Amino acid sequence: MAERGNDDPTAPATVGGGQTAATAKIPPVQLPTRSKDGKEEVAAKQLDGNDPLRLNAASKTTIEQQRAADWDIIKKLMQHVWPKGDWSTKRRVLLALALLFGGKLLNVQVPFFFKVIIDKLNETVQAPLDMTNPNTVYVVAGSAIIGYGLARIGALVFSELRNAIFANVAQRSIRRVAKSVFTHLLALDLGWHLSRQTGGLTRAIDRGTKGISFLLTSIVFHIVPTALEITMVCGILSYKCGPTFAAVTAVTMAAYSWFTIKTTSWRTRFRKEANAADNRAATTSVDSLLNYEAVKYFNNEKHEVDKYDAAMKDYEKSSVKVATSLAALNSGQNIIFSTSLTVMMLLAAQGVMKGTMTVGDLVMVNQLVFQLSLPLNFLGTVYRELRQSLVDMETLFNLENVDVKVKDNPDAPPLRVTGGEIKFENVTFGYHPDRSIFTDCSFTIPAGSKVAFVGPSGCGKSTIFRLLFRFYEPQSGRITIDGQDIRDVSLDSVRKAIGVVPQDTPLFNADIMHNIRYGRLDASDAEVQHAAQRAKVDQIVSNLPAGYETKVGERGLMISGGEKQRLAIARLLLKDPEILFFDEATSALDSYTETELMRNINTTLLDNHRTAIFVAHRLRTISNCDVIFVLRGGKVLEKGTHDDLMARDGLYRSLWGSQSTIGIGQGAGEGEHIHEHEHSVKDVAHSDVQAQQSSVDSPRRP
Ligand SMILES: Nc1ncnc2c1ncn2[C@@H]1O[C@H](COP(=O)(O)OP(=O)(O)OP(=O)(O)O)[C@@H](O)[C@H]1O
Ligand SMILES: N[C@@H](CCC(=O)N[C@@H](CS)C(=O)NCC(=O)O)C(=O)O
């Protein structure tokens, strides 16, 4: 039986706070969050997640609650196995059950045939051949032998058929649950996602779905068949050999199960410790190897090796305990089983002596009970994995219960963009209640204009986009696009109307073509290439051996920041939304490319009269905007054109001043900075030219 090996106390996904689905009001999903120092924080209670020992320590109500929650999950799962109205699945299940019953029936026939063979041959041995009819013996014993073989083959074929037929039901359930959880995850708000680790989430789905598979298969292939076989064996024994045999079997099964469950619960701790140590070792080694350069910079190889070895030492210790406790479990199980088998043989031997039973009966009893040992040998493993599956599935189902904060109103009409005027009206917002980013903030972005937001780092420039895109809802006030409150129109239409080049471009681990096409999935190759041209991606692509088929690596790590930004712009040009948001979109580009790109963007905007919002630290990039908003302290401090703002002795002018002189103060004696100074003076000069040029390129709209 395959080990899933996921009974790990540091498992990232488990039921939070030890609560159960049945009792928790707030869905107790708990995935690891990263603490400030980058360590994974796992709530202490999580350690209890799948600990059967908890059942001993916990209060009675907790056991009951846990049981109720477990039943809840099994019931939920059974809805997939017996789905309302889905007769094709139901037929499959019924067929699988019939095969199960038939298979077990055949299986218990095997000892009967054995008995007949022995008895018949025995008769022949005991009585001289001429006393009996040898033909009858041959016929009976021969057909029993054939029956024996056929019964064995039949039992196996039935069981395999059952597996094949049920596989479809199990896999479909997994797919349904996984799809519904994944859909829900994508619907959850950004805030929720930012506070979770993606790795933890995917593992939660992975484990949860594996849990479904394990639970279903172990119930259908292990627990139910074994229980059925035990019942059949007890019935046959009491009918054929008297109730004593049945009683011995029943007591043995009870003792065996009790011992197995207790011992498994006890030894699960060692497995958890081993897994935790294994995880620690893996984390340490991955961390060290990923930060190879850092290790070398500070000659810390020994420190890393020691850390790794400490985890491996723990792993070694607990692994030894796993092995020794397994030996104890196997020995105990064997002692119980063999004792019972011996007792039954004794009873049968007495029966034979008394003449109430035949030698064939003795063999049959032995065989009937012995056959049970096969599935029972994995009882402990099945029990442990079942408990783990229940915990994993609880986590999975609880993910589905997480409330979606930013909800789409089902009856909401789509947003109709007529010019792209954006209004923030008395907006108050903070990510945390005790720290406000905007306080009663109001401003208007005129339709079709090019505006910029500037201000100190962290003043909330990117937050404007997140609110506009409805990643978050303001605590009070409203945001409108062309007079329509964005909360009253459909979320999908708002997001379709707005495009963004974010600070950090999210790229998929696919080729450049796919990544640009992501802006509009149905775009043709020619359209993608055209957008790439306008975003100056074609220059990069022409230098790459694989051209548009070059993979960008996980999260685009294989291409430079500037190249990433150009890809993001190409994507946006392809999406061609009515409202565009450029969040430091050109910060990683050199001045020349930036100017070129900005001119391209300007032309595009001009052609289509799009509303465009720019956020930039390099003020020269945005100096030609129609309106510049200077944010500070959660409000708009100044607003106007570059010239208006320069005419005033305000924050903008001082920011501009500091940017054009930044190199002088810092650069004394440092070649690098002097160079930067020269550059920035040149940049300002350049920006003036650019501003003039842009005003020629893009006459101000009313
Ligand atoms: N998801 C979040 N949860 C909590 N706080 C956040 C979150 N996102 C941003 N913040 C905080 O809100 C503030 C405003 O963030 P925002 O990204 O809008 O700033 P910004 O003006 O764009 O900054 P920068 O110029 O550095 O990009 C920052 O102090 C930031 O730390
Ligand atoms: N008889 C025991 C052990 C069965 C067994 O050998 N299980 C296999 C997996 S199918 C195993 O490797 N177990 C390791 C362990 O339990 O530590 C039981 O009922 O659990």
Automatic annotation (TrEMBL):
Membrane topology: Multi-pass membrane protein
Key words, A-Z: ATP-binding, Membrane, Mitochondrion, Mitochondrion inner membrane, Nucleotide-binding, Translocase, Transmembrane, Transmembrane helix, Transport
Any one GO molecular function term: ABC-type transporter activity
Main localization, broad class: mitochondrion
ABC transporter domain residues: 422-658
Segments passing through the bilayer: 93-118, 138-158, 212-238, 244-261, 335-353
Gene3D superfamilies linked to this entry: ABC transporter type 1, transmembrane domain, P-loop containing nucleotide triphosphate hydrolases
Cellular localization per UniProt: Mitochondrion inner membrane
Disordered: region residues: 1-43, 683-702
Biased composition (Low complexity): 10-24, 687-702
One Pfam family this sequence matches: ABC_membrane
UniProt-listed InterPro entries: AAA+_ATPase, ABC1_TM_dom, ABC1_TM_sf, ABC_transporter-like_ATP-bd, ABC_transporter-like_CS, P-loop_NTPase, Type_1_exporter
Cellular-component GO terms for this entry: mitochondrial inner membrane
Domain ABC transmembrane type-1, residue spans: 94-388
GO BP term, pick one: iron-sulfur cluster export from the mitochondrion
Composition bias type Basic and acidic residues, residue spans: 34-43
Entry keyword annotation includes Hydrolase: no
Family: Belongs to the ABC transporter superfamily. ABCB family. Heavy Metal importer (TC 3.A.1.210) subfamily.
Assembly notes: Homodimer.
Protein name: Iron-sulfur clusters transporter ATM1, mitochondrial
Organism: Tilletiaria anomala (strain ATCC 24038 / CBS 436.72 / UBC 951)
Source taxonomy: Eukaryota, Fungi, Dikarya, Basidiomycota, Ustilaginomycotina
